[in-house]
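Here is the promised in-class demo. Please do not try to memorize the tokens; focus on the logic of going from shape to residues.
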């Protein structure tokens, strides 16, 4: 899918005209490639806590240059603001005002990452300061330029700044894997999880199922999980069989033609994965449909088909997985929701209800998977360049595509990268969460 405007204003006379008229000039995002350095330059770690010292030590082990103080006129690839010991609002000022001028030296596609504690249950002054990080980070993200992003990691009770999933999330946010994730927080709820022996192949030995894998985001998820080391079962409806076979063959996986709304879909998935690959570790619910209509014109067919594919199928398949003895070894489920399910969208009562429902399902299923050391999370894409969004009328498409901090649509691989991270053991301490991949939508949620 093409974004002609971005191409026109990226060079030559188009760039000059856009600059003169103050029009959006989206930056080319630095996306992940194997063996790519984490950020494009040294990492400045700001913060005086023991957690900040420990974290700086860990970063040294990742082969990145670490600075504990800004060096005049030195470009930095990332600024990590460790705010894990805030006791009152006054504690915010010193680290935040140290980070401010350092932003001038942030490289294009640079990263700002905050690490702070959840406000839950703290004294009012501590809770106020911790919650303050939320507004701070989301605003910084809106002030960054040239493809740079700002995201945060929130530590809960008993989770240290160097817990495996804090480091996993930090790696994700620093890398090109999170190119279209902006202004978001990941909450680490437990010290479980483990970092991969080979960072470029975190899913080695895992068997993953991806629904809706014949095209669009699903095909990209299948390819990304394969690139990260997983064996992939690609699922889609029989009518998409040719494309499905192409995707599966291209990644040396297997194809399973299956309508996910079938009563026995869960069992068919388990039987296929176990008989062909001996196990099942990761379930990605991506299959989804839209049948847009204003509620005033909504009918049974549009309502029930969207709820059926997008939500009820996921619930039924999860039930079968949870009942199966084959999904008990640190199982991971990742569901594709949508920012429409968070902010709502005109003409999408059915779709938004289904996607908000996915978020509710994820939160309620997290404790059930925790029994097996597993996790379940959702990824909520914003505007992604796919066949689904290419069908939108020009004006709403152009508005939806530009109105985010990065001024462009995301690509299917941006969603796939977030899913691959949440499906990995490095994210094992993150569960029941929703990660938006939306370039920080400026309207709605
Ligand atoms: P798409 O229409 O290009 O692909 C969806 C795939 O799901 C198709 O291959 C389709 O055949 C398959 N599918 C549909 N019904 C199925 C069923 N009953 N059983 C098995 N497979 C079925 O869509 P996409 O843009 O790639 O979207 C993928 C997911 O991302 C969906 O859940 C969608 O709601 C979500 N999403 C997309 C965007 C976006 O901007 N494209 C934004 C937010 C969320």
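The designed amino acids, position by position:
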């Amino acid at each position: 899918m093409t974004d002609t405007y971005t191409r026109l204003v990226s060079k030559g006379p188009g760039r000059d005209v856009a600059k003169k008229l103050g029009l959006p000039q989206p930056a080319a995002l630095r996306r992940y490639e194997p063996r790519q350095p984490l950020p494009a330059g040294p990492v400045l770690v700001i913060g005086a806590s023991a957690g900040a010292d420990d974290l700086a030590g860990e970063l040294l082990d990742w082969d990145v240059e670490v600075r504990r103080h800004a060096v005049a006129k030195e470009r930095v690839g990332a600024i990590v603001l460790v705010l894990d010991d805030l006791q009152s609002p006054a504690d915010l000022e010193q680290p935040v005002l140290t980070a401010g001028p350092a932003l001038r030296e942030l490289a294009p596609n640079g990263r700002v990452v905050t690490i702070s504690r959840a406000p839950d249950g703290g004294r009012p002054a501590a809770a106020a300061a911790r919650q303050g990080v939320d507004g701070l980070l989301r605003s910084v993200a809106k002030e960054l330029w040239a493809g740079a992003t700002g995201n945060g990691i929130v530590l809960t009770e008993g989770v240290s700044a160097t817990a495996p999933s804090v480091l996993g999330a930090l790696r994700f946010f620093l890398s090109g894997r999170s190119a279209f994730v902006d202004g978001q927080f990941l909450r680490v709820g437990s010290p479980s999880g483990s970092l991969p022996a080979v960072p470029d192949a975190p899913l080695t030995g895992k068997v993953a199922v991806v629904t809706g894998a014949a095209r669009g985001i699903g095909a990209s998820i299948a390819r990304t999980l394969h690139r990260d080391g997983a064996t992939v079962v690609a699922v889609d409806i029989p009518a998409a069989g040719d494309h499905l076979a192409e995707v599966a063959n291209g990644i040396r996986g297997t194809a399973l033609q299956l309508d996910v709304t079938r009563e026995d879909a869960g069992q068919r998935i388990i039987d296929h994965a176990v008989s062909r690959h001996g196990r099942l570790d990761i379930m990605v619910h991506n299959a989804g449909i839209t049948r847009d209509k204003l509620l005033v014109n909504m009918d049974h067919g549009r309502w029930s088909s969207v709820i059926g594919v997008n939500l009820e199928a996921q619930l039924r398949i999860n039930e079968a997985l949870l009942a199966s003895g084959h999904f008990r070894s640190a199982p991971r489920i990742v569901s594709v929701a949508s920012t429409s399910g968070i902010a709502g969208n005109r003409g999408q009562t059915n779709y938004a209800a289904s996607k908000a429902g996915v978020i509710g399902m994820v939160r309620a299923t997290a404790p059930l998977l925790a029994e097996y050391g597993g996790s379940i999370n959702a990824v909520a894409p914003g505007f992604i360049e796919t066949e689904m969004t290419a069908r939108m009328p020009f004006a709403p498409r152009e508005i939806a595509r530009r109105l985010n901090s990065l001024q462009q649509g995301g690509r299917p691989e941006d969603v796939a990268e977030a899913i691959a991270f949440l499906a990995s053991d490095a994210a094992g301490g993150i569960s029941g969460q929703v990660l938006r991949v939306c370039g920080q939508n400026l309207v709605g949620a």
